[in-house]
Write a structure and sequence with these properties.
The structure holds two protein chains of two kinds. Chain A is mainly beta. Chain A has one helix at 44-50; strands at residues 5-13, 26-31, 36-41. Chain A has a domain at 18-50. In chain A, strands 2-3 form a two-stranded antiparallel sheet. Chain B is α+β, with helices and mostly antiparallel strands. Chain B is 42% helix and 11% strand. Chain B has a six-stranded mixed beta sheet. In chain B, strands 3-2-1-4 form a four-stranded antiparallel beta sheet. In chain B, helix 18 (460-480) packs across helix 21 (525-545) and helix 18 (460-480) crosses helix 24 (593-619). The chains are: A mainly beta, B alpha+beta. Chains A and B meet through strand 1 and strand 2 of A and strand 1, strand 2, helix 1, strand 4 and strand 5 of B. Strand 2 (26-31) of chain A pairs parallel with strand 4 of chain B, so a sheet runs across the interface.
Chain lengths: 55, 652
């Protein structure tokens, strides 16, 4: 198999959200400019308006 | 995405975002089509949001790892891999070196790298070299095929999201997760979920063999049907049937497809993701090697086969293989090359412009050569890879080609290449394409079957109503993380006797039960439409925000509406003559074919504009195609930012 080289440049541990009725109520954002990983809550109103959303 | 981008954002600006979402129902094992993802971004082809619905395990793995949606923005400086590890609860970003360049090998290498012992735990999203060098790059979403012990993939094909991915220097996004069951979504009512899952799965298992046989032939069953109804694109949508079509349809692929379970989601009974093993390409970097080809589906057969005049199942497989490996959308590739071939045959472009290639219809070697050029960003293929809208400008400016003729035959709308249905005799499908938010892709409004094959919408009002209901409802599947095929491709045996057969009432009931069982929001069939109508209108306003989203953009080339040339007219002369005489009450005895082409064109273009009027009214939009204040209020999307965009466009 081809040898690949991966160098870790950012890592976070997170507490996995419990899934409730099909939703985790969390979104994950990866910003490549700052090599940043952030987790955001999804509001109830957004969920009710957009269901699963398209993005 | 609305918050991430401004009205001035271009596809390759850092703030452009790729979002992957899998909805509340996505990830239900055993529910037919219950594991889809929807991917969105600002498209390089259209400048507005594109959405692409795709199978594979990534969406569910990402959700069960803790995220309803993942958003990737900014641009990396070096090749990057993002790893979401739902087993270890870690997210990592890697700089990557020495990766395979194509998606075929990269998906395999990364799957094994991230879980060598249990590759089934890994799903990989990748693009490829074609995505780097064209505007219609696709994304491959993988899953591990336990039966064949190999990586398979499906494509988020449309609109160039793979191009955005490659531009951000993302080589792959990898998700890893462990065992999945019906409990994984933690449904509100597990027993109700089990019941509805079992009912729908059982019906598909019983009826698919009697109806479409998709578990054996995938969507290639559509080739003979479309050919019989004069709807199969032949020679860049000039004609709708061809005597050789039987060598590229289900009759052939049934015998070529490798036997075994082919669901792109666990336990799906439609299981239509067929493939061909031990295929040996005769061109390109895999020449003479044995590879597995994922596909082809109907769209690839029609776009890269009949529309190019290539009636050869082997060549279609080879085009399919390289498009996937290079990260290219087979629909845009096929429709773009078909346009080029018609330009070539009409001397709008010559061998002086095509690196010496003869690009007459049927020239399979040179069609493949263009695709290999696209992967390298070289030669004439680099121009074709910019898509039809850009090619028209280049051919006119640099090669002196006739722009008016190219506008008529270039099968794009809003900048996106048409998917593969001839719409000349289906006004409903002309609207289905022209009024689609993202451009002419059938997943938003696939009415041709209902209109032409079943004749479910005979009147003008029926068509306008259908162009309200169907795009709204089809949106619902993407929002929930589902595939649409189990809804209306396989229907209950007594469906034709129901009040509105096109809507498949029994299945609507099941989808309402499915939604209620998982989310706990008690819903009936009538509630489903309201869920997606808000999102649909929001996306229309998003188009408006990006400088589009009005009536003038809902146009289609005349090739989609009627015969552009005398050759086309005369190929179906009796049909068109009868229409002029009977439908439009014209005396055609003294008219030349050229006169008749012009007369028919005038009538059909008027009809299309009238359809727009009717559909806008039905959707609660102004006659300029903008949702009214009343509509956005009714749908609960009257956010201040939305009202501001409407106001800017004169809607208060």
């Amino acid at each position: 198999m081809k040898q690949i080289h991966l160098k870790e440049i950012k890592a976070i541990s997170y507490e996995k959200a419990e899934i409730k009725k099909g939703y985790t109520d969390q979104s994950l954002r990866i910003n490549l400019d700052a090599t940043d990983i952030t987790i955001h809550p999804i509001e109830e109103k957004v969920k009710n308006t957009f269901i699963g959303g398209k993005g | 995405m609305w918050n991430a981008v401004s009205g001035d954002t271009k596809w390759n600006d850092p703030e452009n975002t790729i979002c992957i979402s899998s909805g509340p129902l996505g990830g239900t094992p055993g529910y037919p089509g219950g594991g889809k993802s929807i991917v969105t971004s600002i498209s390089p082809l259209t400048g507005v949001p594109i959405d692409s619905n795709v199978g594979g395990y990534f969406g569910p793995y990402k959700k069960f790892s803790g995220f309803d949606v993942i958003q990737v923005d900014g641009k990396a400086k070096t090749d990057t891999i993002i790893f979401i590890d739902g087993i270890e609860s870690k997210i990592k970003i890697f700089e990557a070196k020495d990766l395979p360049t194509d998606s075929y090998e990269l998906s395999d290498v990364l799957t094994r790298h991230f879980d060598e012992d249990k590759p089934v735990n890994v799903s990989v999203v990748t693009a490829g070299p074609g995505a780097e060098h064209t505007f219609f790059g696709c994304l491959n979403f993988s899953w591990w095929d336990a039966g064949r012990k190999r990586v398979r993939y499906k494509q988020a094909g449309r609109g160039g999201i793979g191009t955005v991915f490659a531009d951000k220097k993302v080589k792959a996004i990898v998700a890893r997760y462990g065992a999945i069951s019906m409990k994984s979504n933690n449904p509100a009512d597990l027993d109700a979920l089990k019941l509805v899952t079992k009912s729908h799965a059982k019906e598909i298992k019983e009826l698919d063999p009697k109806q479409n046989r998709m578990s054996l032939v995938g969507t290639t069953h559509l080739v003979p049907i479309m050919n019989d109804h004069d709807c199969l694109p032949v020679h860049n949508f000039k004609f709708g049937s061809h005597p050789e079509s039987h060598v590229i349809g289900e009759e052939v692929y049934e015998h070529i497809f490798d036997k075994g379970f082919d669901g792109c989601w666990r336990g799906c009974t439609v299981a239509c993701s067929h493939g061909v093993k031990d295929f040996s390409p005769f061109t390109g970097p895999y020449r003479g090697k044995k590879v597995f080809v994922d596909g082809p589906e109907y769209e690839t057969v029609a776009g890269c086969g009949s529309s190019l005049g290539i009636f050869d199942a082997h060549t279609i497989l080879e085009i399919n293989f390289y498009c996937d490996a290079y990260g290219l959308d087979t629909i845009s590739v096929g429709t773009s090359i078909a346009f080029v071939m018609e330009c070539f045959e009409n001397n709008l472009i010559t061998t002086d412009h095509t690196d010496g290639m003869d690009l007459s219809f049927g020239n399979r070697f040179n069609a493949l050569k263009i695709i290999h050029q696209m992967a390298k960003g070289e030669g004439f293929g680099a121009i074709v890879g910019k898509g039809i809208r850009n090619m028209k400008k280049i051919f006119a400016k640099d090669f002196g080609a006739d722009m008016a003729f190219m506008q008529d035959i270039g099968m794009e709308s809003k900048g996106l290449e048409f998917s593969e249905y001839i719409t000349k005799e289906s006004l409903a499908q002309q609207g289905g394409y022209g009024l689609a938010l993202k451009g002419p892709q059938h997943d938003e409004a696939w009415l041709i079957f209902l209109d032409m094959v079943h004749n479910f919408m005979p009147t003008f009002e029926d068509k306008a109503e259908a162009l309200h209901w169907f795009p709204m409802f089809r949106t619902w599947f993407g929002l929930c993380g589902l595939c649409k095929l189990p809804w209306n491709d396989i229907v209950p045996e007594d469906n034709k006797n129901t009040f509105e057969p096109a809507k498949v009432a029994k299945h609507l009931g099941w989808y309402a039960d499915f939604f209620s069982a998982v989310t706990g929001r008690k819903s009936g069939p009538e509630d489903l439409l309201a869920m997606s109508e808000g999102v649909y209108n929001f996306q229309r306003v998003f188009n408006l925000k990006m400088g589009f989203g009005t009536r003038e953009h809902d146009t289609v080339p005349y090739r989609a509406v009627g015969p552009v040339t005398v050759e086309e007219y005369e190929s179906r002369q009796k049909r068109y003559d009868d229409q002029l005489k009977e439908k439009y009450d014209m005396d055609i005895r003294e008219m030349s074919s050229k006169d008749k082409v012009a007369a028919l064109r005038q009538k059909r273009e008027e009809q299309y504009e009238q359809l727009k009027d009717a559909v806008y009214a039905r959707r609660g939009w102004t006659q300029n195609g903008i949702p009214t204040v009343k509509t956005v209020k009714r749908l609960g999307i009257d956010f201040p930012e939305v009202m501001e965009v409407l106001k800017k466009n004169g809607v208060e």
